[in-house]
């Protein structure tokens, strides 16, 4: 246990010397003895008094320890004085002289001599310096020693006074004040050894040419993920997951404003739909079930059930044995589906409006978090077009032409593979000054069976992908809403319509024209912030080799 | 195909009689013949003219069919005139005489004679009567016949004029107007036979004593769920799922306002945690994974990772082979976890505030939807206490005493089983006039290993359940945040701490005191509306016997 209990000084044993009586003494002897006895008595009294004083002092020390420092009861929940705690973020020099109470992590503690302890205290993305100084009747040496010995990452409850900082403290995010501690209690300590310090885990990720020391201190991704709970405490990660929450909220708010209904579709399915190869099999009582690799079928059935416009935020599962920087076996899908009145570009334009809303809101409302992340992950600011010309839309053919112009052999471009995507992203950024664009009209052969063909050229389809920094973040299309056509397309792709009869039935019962798309939440987060690996955008990522923590 | 294409009248064969030439005729004969020829020519000309007229007329009929009725192109997405569609809900008598365009389902269609067709057109929870009348040059007999033959549940695009209804039309939700149709097109038809009509599926659920006819028309739950896409189209279900969306939003908004962060935790886990018995096993590449039966561990780890206050909305999986009215194998958990400053009642009170916010917001903002559901599912209005005395809070002991007073033998009340819960609900409603209450301080023996014991009486725990209409809808507690105590508790419950080391590690690295709870979304919805079966509150429910649709 690194959280040391205050060592109690045992009350000193009072050195009381009892006077010993002897038999048949002489008078002078008696006198002498009496004198000696008196002397002894006095000495004893003195000793007793001394002992009492020392005992009192020791007792006072114990009270002091209980009152001013030490470990709080494990259970908490014993009384409720309703004392309010302050957030580090709200500390300002205007509070100079004000008493405050706060709960925080000990990011670092450092003794200076035997009379001063410097702390950096941390709450989420904020930190402040705090100072404990030995002073008569207020802060004992013992208390300072105990506090200086607190392990990094201990959680403490601190009472103190806000002081303007004599100069800006660079080691803390709130650098213009410090806290002068009068009391400090341990709420929760550390057991064992930290896998790495939060300070080391917060160092900037440098692209190359690091110093040997920097390389040594660098915490590798795998080490971070194995100890994700500590890794998540960096200000960077606190910001990343505030931004993840924000993206979800912007998605929802925008769609709620457009008349969408949020749905929750089952992840357990009776058949391996869409593409059986990448589906996880589940033991389901005496039979099997399969994990949904998207809410595609369910959201389309919701359209057939008159929901008009639906979205879902939920896990999707992909049993693909690939360990790239952008694939996980479980991720959060932001999915939507909507009825079309006249043309599938209604969907494409709504999706574009949605992305612009997310980008704008992130920049407007979360600049502090974005800045926090950038300190560790330096990146060019994410660019999109705001002018009257709107978002760049290329047809698949135009995208291919751009790549061919850039030197990619046309024969290699039946599909645009991942390296070509990245290359296209660079070409587009240079030519159109945007990190965000749309490719429309993919060849029918590249899309799933439920994609609606182009009415004029059946080799093309009414489908689109959206890109951020040269990586796909959304795939979508107008869907086939006619049961006969759907069954034909299934057969053409080698799927037996009988295995998906419940899905086909939905269309047999009448379904309006519709389209939609699916966004990977973690991809948007990774690419907006340029985190370079999707695992950094997932709380507890899952890949073929990782199921814990 | 029930959606009949308009039959084209073939253009009539023009009856042209050719004049036949003969050899060597006399002059008079010639004259006669010339006259005859002229006559024939005239007749031919007349016939040709007649034929042309008829052809013109037929052609006009075809144009008329294309213009005024018929099936729209399957693909849509060919042109984009951007004509705006109206919502039935926004139709009012003030719009009398206004032209409108709308897309809707044909709920019913009925021919009256050969010249009039009455429709009830439906959009989600609204419906309106529409009327097609044969009139020269506007609505042909053919068009009326075609329209009258449209199958129920066809989707049509209708152009017409709003008219004040001569009297309130009871068969529609918007009863004070009707639409006089000038054009009608089929967007999507029906293939095969409807399993039941949406009208039948919308009839009130009567408790008992139904007429034989009512019983016959009643659509059984299993039939509904087998054909969920049609069942979901009832105005009742449209309202139910709008309310489901609303509850999720109220949950989120309230917690966002209280400084919570939304998280997404993985559903795939490396070990069968919490209680292995009710966990689904997944084939995971060359090994196995397990489906999370709650985000309990992940949300606690998020607290250890300094997230302070977190919530999650996501699927939870229970491999329990029970087919009750309130269990599903997959449902949506509304889960939250928060740091405690002084006392676990901080959590209990926040949860209470959350429920009151949900109840109040539902009543204030969704009275139309609640009324819609009540037409099919009659229920006493859901009651809660709004006075200064606040929500009723009973200790487990007090709840047991109430049941004993009511005649339940005390020996049977080590736990409060489902029938006793229901009974308690009735007792509380009678005595305290509320359908919503809290039971606090459950015996430690009834709660999982991660529950914090009561500091004064270790046979009790800092845990609570929330109830609606006598059924549990939330279970929560203060959690053990100390790794040593947690490992001891695991051993005491027969769990090997080594199997959950990643979880224990989170607490070894320092974790603040915290507590939380989990709410079943579908249960709240079912109990607020009194739907009597949880499957009605789930879009596509899953139970041991149902994995489709």
Automatic annotation (TrEMBL), chains A, B:
<dbReference type="InterPro" id="IPR006195">
    <property type="entry name" value="aa-tRNA-synth_II"/>
</dbReference>
<dbReference type="GO" id="GO:0005829">
    <property type="term" value="C:cytosol"/>
</dbReference>
<keyword id="KW-0547">Nucleotide-binding</keyword>
<dbReference type="GO" id="GO:0005524">
    <property type="term" value="F:ATP binding"/>
</dbReference>
<dbReference type="GO" id="GO:0003723">
    <property type="term" value="F:RNA binding"/>
</dbReference>
<keyword id="KW-0436">Ligase</keyword>
<dbReference type="Pfam" id="PF01336">
    <property type="entry name" value="tRNA_anti-codon"/>
</dbReference>
<feature type="domain" description="Aminoacyl-transfer RNA synthetases class-II family profile">
    <location>
        <begin position="241"/>
        <end position="541"/>
    </location>
</feature>
<dbReference type="GO" id="GO:0006422">
    <property type="term" value="P:aspartyl-tRNA aminoacylation"/>
</dbReference>
<feature type="region of interest" description="Disordered">
    <location>
        <begin position="1"/>
        <end position="52"/>
    </location>
</feature>
<keyword id="KW-0030">Aminoacyl-tRNA synthetase</keyword>
<comment type="similarity">
    <text>Belongs to the class-II aminoacyl-tRNA synthetase family. Type 2 subfamily.</text>
</comment>
<dbReference type="InterPro" id="IPR004364">
    <property type="entry name" value="Aa-tRNA-synt_II"/>
</dbReference>
<keyword id="KW-0963">Cytoplasm</keyword>
<dbReference type="InterPro" id="IPR004523">
    <property type="entry name" value="Asp-tRNA_synthase_2"/>
</dbReference>
<dbReference type="InterPro" id="IPR045864">
    <property type="entry name" value="aa-tRNA-synth_II/BPL/LPL"/>
</dbReference>
<feature type="compositionally biased region" description="Basic and acidic residues">
    <location>
        <begin position="26"/>
        <end position="52"/>
    </location>
</feature>
<dbReference type="GO" id="GO:0017101">
    <property type="term" value="C:aminoacyl-tRNA synthetase multienzyme complex"/>
</dbReference>
<dbReference type="InterPro" id="IPR002312">
    <property type="entry name" value="Asp/Asn-tRNA-synth_IIb"/>
</dbReference>
<dbReference type="InterPro" id="IPR004365">
    <property type="entry name" value="NA-bd_OB_tRNA"/>
</dbReference>
<keyword id="KW-0067">ATP-binding</keyword>
<dbReference type="GO" id="GO:0004815">
    <property type="term" value="F:aspartate-tRNA ligase activity"/>
</dbReference>
<dbReference type="InterPro" id="IPR012340">
    <property type="entry name" value="NA-bd_OB-fold"/>
</dbReference>
<keyword id="KW-0648">Protein biosynthesis</keyword>
<dbReference type="Pfam" id="PF00152">
    <property type="entry name" value="tRNA-synt_2"/>
</dbReference>
<protein>
    <recommendedName>
        <fullName>Aspartate--tRNA ligase, cytoplasmic</fullName>
        <ecNumber>6.1.1.12</ecNumber>
    </recommendedName>
</protein>
């Amino acid at each position: 246990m690194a959280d040391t209990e205050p060592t109690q000084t045992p009350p000193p044993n009072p050195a009381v010397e009892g006077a010993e009586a002897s038999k048949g003494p002489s008078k002078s002897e008696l006198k002498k003895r009496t004198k000696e006895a008196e002397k002894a008595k006095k000495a004893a009294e003195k000793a007793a008094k001394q002992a009492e004083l020392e005992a009192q002092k020791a007792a006072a020390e114990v009270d002091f320890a209980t009152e001013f420092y030490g470990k709080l009861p494990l259970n908490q929940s014993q009384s409720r004085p309703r004392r309010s705690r302050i957030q580090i973020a709200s500390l300002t020099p205007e509070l100079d002289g004000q008493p405050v109470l706060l709960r925080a992590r000990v990011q670092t503690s450092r003794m200076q001599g035997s009379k001063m302890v410097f702390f950096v205290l941390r709450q989420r993305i904020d930190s402040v310096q705090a100072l404990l100084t030995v002073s008569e009747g207020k802060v004992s040496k013992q208390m300072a020693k105990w506090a200086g010995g607190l392990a990094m990452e201990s959680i403490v409850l601190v009472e103190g006074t806000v002081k303007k900082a004599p100069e800006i403290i660079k080691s803390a995010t709130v650098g213009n004040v410090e806290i002068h501690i009068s009391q400090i209690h341990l709420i929760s300590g550390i057991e064992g050894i930290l896998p790495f310090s939060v300070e080391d885990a917060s160092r900037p990720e440098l692209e190359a040419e690091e110093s040997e020391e920097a390389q040594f201190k660098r915490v590798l991704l795998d080490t971070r993920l194995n100890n994700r709970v500590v890794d998540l405490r960096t200000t960077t990660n606190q910001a990343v997951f505030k931004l993840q929450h924000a993206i979800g909220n912007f998605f929802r708010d925008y769609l709620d404003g457009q008349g969408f209904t949020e749905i929750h579709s089952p992840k357990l399915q009776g058949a391996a739909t869409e593409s059986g190869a990448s589906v996880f099999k589940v033991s389901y009582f005496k039979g099997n079930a399969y994990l949904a690799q998207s809410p595609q079928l369910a959201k389309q059935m919701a359209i057939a059930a008159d929901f008009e416009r639906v979205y879902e935020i939920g896990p999707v599962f992909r049993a693909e044995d690939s360990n790239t920087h952008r694939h996980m076996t479980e991720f959060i899908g932001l999915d939507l589906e909507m009825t079309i009145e006249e043309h599938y570009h209604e969907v494409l334009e709504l999706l574009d409006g949605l992305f612009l809303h997310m980008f704008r809101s992130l920049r407007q409302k979360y600049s502090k978090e974005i800045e926090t992340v950038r300190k560790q992950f330096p990146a060019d600011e994410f660019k999109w077009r705001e002018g009257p010309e709107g978002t760049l839309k290329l047809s698949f053919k135009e995208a291919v032409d751009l790549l061919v112009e850039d030197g990619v052999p046309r024969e290699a471009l039946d599909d645009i593979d991942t390296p070509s995507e990245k290359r296209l992203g660079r070409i587009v950024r240079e030519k159109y000054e945007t990190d965000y664009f749309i490719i429309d009209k993919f060849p029918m052969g590249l899309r799933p069976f439920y994609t609606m063909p182009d009415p004029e050229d059946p080799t093309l389809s009414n489908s689109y992908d959206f890109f951020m920094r040269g990586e796909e973040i959304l795939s979508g299309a107008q869907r086939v809403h006619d049961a006969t056509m759907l069954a034909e397309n299934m057969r053409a792709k080698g799927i037996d319509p009988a295995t998906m009869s419940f899905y086909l039935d939905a269309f047999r019962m009448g379904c309006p024209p519709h389209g939609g798309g699916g966004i990977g939440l973690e991809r948007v987060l990774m690419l907006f912030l340029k985190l370079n690996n999707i695992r950094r955008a997932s709380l507890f990522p899952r890949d073929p080799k990782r199921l814990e923590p």
